[in-house]
């Protein structure tokens, strides 16, 4: 539809040229005021209709931008989460901004210019119909402007790419600084952190300035070319009138047609920077959506059967760093099992927990929950079968019932049941707002231990088949640990598989299995009592 509106708009742009020719052909020769009046009314109507078509096509482009935003926003958000889970947070945040960049371009006048560019040859063809000489002048002028457009692309591509990279890095570092604001303030790192962000922003600004300066130089030359072309066009038209007694109106007609033919090209040169940003944004969005879509299984994923968790020869290579984190992990857990995964720092415990939770996908082997690949469950909306409590607790702001309920707007009764399961119900009911109490953005109104307890309730929401707890008692005091142990016993009684990643031996009595990890492999795995006596029990002290 936008193309059709552009066709109508550009056709009505011919109205002034037709008007001038008719004045010289009919009005001046007949000296008829009635003819002049009727021509003026017709042309005025044509101009108004053309303006309306221009308004309609701009509105249509804006609606297309709104429609794209509405349709793509959920997919872009989901894809951004996928990229963030792969430790590519920069790409995730950049692609989320790219959708806004694309929308802004479609809302801007620059987008309509590119629908006018295909009409430039039509106006040049009309110049050839007026006279071949005038057409040749118009064609040479258009070729010169196209050459300037090519030079603009070549001159600005590198600095604009550098500006994009530096600006993305600046946004990422600024977000990281805000996340660690307490550490920055406590140790007086404000200046250093601000300088780090400023350097990237300054690098982006300088690169943008270089691109803008080069564009302005080329745009200045292109305007000179257009002005010279107008002068040459009017001079040539005048010479044709003198040499062949042509219609005097061709001076103005040729000038108008040349202006209409060159205006879109010149406008595109001026808007090249915004077009380049929009094109880069579109290409990144397209690559990201294709990459994420390729990871999804188009088939319907079956519901997991209650037959436990199976890890078969699981390995994991860290993206980008190409470093082996896990190799040859094989574990089998039945419903109601509780396993403690222990080992030294850097042995791969947390990475194994993330694979079990479906946060990342194993690069080798398979991780099955109830006979279904865990990553497939996650990609197809089956995350309700898994609960996960990471080391670093991140909570969305809002009411407690919504935080526990995983923001799904479901039955509040399930949130209450999860709170009772972990022993938080009475504490929540003592709050002035109960389950409607707002915890603040990121849970900043809660203590760290309270955030960890609330994260545990969120993990247990909906009675998932598998719960992965990464260092769940790191922030708890004695009473908090006792409450955690009782919660784990309740989870086991409900048939949940509980995976505890820990380095604290005090939690081992609630487990029935232990896996010891060293250097990315399972060094020992079996019943808790046997593993504890064989590998973990301190040797008896003898002698005097």
From TrEMBL:
One of its GO terms (biological process) is protein secretion by the type I secretion system. It is found in: Cell membrane. Residues 1-276 form the ABC transmembrane type-1 domain. GO terms for molecular function: ABC-type transporter activity; ATP binding; ATP hydrolysis activity; ATPase-coupled lipid transmembrane transporter activity. One of its GO terms (cellular component) is plasma membrane. The chain crosses the membrane at residues 7-24, 36-56, 122-151. SMART domains: AAA. SUPFAM superfamilies: ABC transporter transmembrane region, P-loop containing nucleoside triphosphate hydrolases. This is ATP-binding cassette subfamily C protein. It is a multi-pass membrane protein. Residues 309-544 form the ABC transporter domain. Keywords: ATP-binding, Membrane, Nucleotide-binding, Transmembrane, Transmembrane helix. PANTHER family: ABC TRANSPORTER TRANSMEMBRANE REGION (PTHR24221:SF248), ATP-BINDING CASSETTE SUB-FAMILY B (PTHR24221). Its main location: membrane. PROSITE patterns: ABC_TM1F, ABC_TRANSPORTER_2. It comes from the Bacteria.
């Amino acid at each position: 539809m936008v193309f059709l509106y552009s066709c109508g708009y550009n056709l009505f742009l011919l109205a002034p040229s037709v008007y001038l020719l008719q004045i010289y052909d009919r009005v001046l020769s007949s000296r008829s005021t009635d003819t002049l009046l009727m021509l003026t009314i017709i042309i005025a109507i044509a101009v108004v209709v053309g303006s309306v078509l221009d308004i309609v096509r701009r509105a249509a482009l804006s609606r297309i931008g709104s429609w794209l935003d509405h349709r793509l926003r959920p997919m872009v958000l989901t894809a951004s989460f996928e990229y963030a889970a792969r430790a590519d947070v920069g790409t995730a945040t950049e692609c989320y901004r790219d959708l806004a960049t694309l929308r802004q371009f479609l809302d801007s006048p620059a987008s309509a210019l590119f629908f006018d560019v295909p009409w430039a040859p039509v106006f040049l063809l009309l110049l050839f119909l007026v006279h071949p000489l005038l057409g040749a002048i118009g064609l040479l002028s258009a070729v010169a402007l196209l050459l300037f457009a090519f030079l603009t692309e070549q001159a600005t591509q590198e600095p604009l790419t550098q500006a994009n990279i530096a600006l993305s890095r600046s946004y990422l570092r600024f977000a990281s600084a805000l996340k660690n604001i307490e550490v920055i303030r406590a140790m007086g790192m404000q200046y250093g952190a601000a300088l780090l962000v400023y350097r990237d922003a300054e690098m982006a600004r300088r690169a943008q300035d270089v691109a803008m300066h080069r564009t302005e130089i080329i745009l200045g030359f292109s305007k000179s070319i257009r002005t010279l072309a107008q002068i040459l066009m009017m001079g040539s038209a005048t010479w044709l009138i003198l040499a062949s007694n042509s219609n005097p109106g061709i001076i103005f007609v040729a000038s108008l047609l040349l202006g209409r033919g060159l205006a879109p090209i010149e406008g595109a040169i001026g808007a090249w920077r915004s077009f380049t940003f929009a094109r880069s944004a579109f290409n990144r969005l397209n690559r990201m959506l294709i990459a994420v879509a390729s990871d999804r299984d188009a088939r319907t994923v079956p519901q997991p059967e209650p037959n436990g968790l199976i890890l078969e020869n699981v390995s994991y290579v860290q993206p980008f760093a190409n470093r082996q984190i896990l190799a040859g992990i094989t574990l089998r857990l039945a419903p109601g099992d509780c396993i403690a995964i222990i080992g030294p720092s850097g042995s791969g415990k947390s990475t194994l927990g993330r694979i079990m939770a479906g946060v990342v996908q194993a690069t080798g082997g398979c991780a099955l929950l109830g006979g279904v690949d865990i990553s497939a469950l996650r990609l197809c909306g089956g995350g309700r079968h898994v609960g996960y409590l990471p080391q670093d607790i991140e909570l969305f702001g809002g009411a407690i019932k919504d935080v526990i309920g995983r923001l799904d707007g479901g039955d509040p009764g399930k949130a209450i049941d999860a709170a009772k399961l972990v022993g938080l119900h009475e504490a929540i009911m003592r709050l002035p707002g109960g389950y409607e109490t707002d915890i603040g953005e990121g849970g900043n109104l809660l203590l760290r231990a309270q955030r960890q307890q609330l994260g545990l309730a969120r993990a247990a929401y909906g009675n998932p088949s598998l719960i992965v707890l990464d260092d769940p008692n790191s922030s708890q005091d004695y009473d908090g640990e006792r409450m955690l142990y009782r919660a784990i016993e309740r989870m086991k009684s409900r048939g949940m598989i509980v995976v505890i990643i820990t380095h604290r031996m005090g939690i081992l009595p609630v487990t029935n299995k232990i896996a010891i990890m060293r250097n990315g492999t399972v060094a020992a795995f079996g019943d808790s009592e046997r593993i504890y006596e064989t590998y973990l029990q301190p040797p008896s002290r003898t002698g005097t």
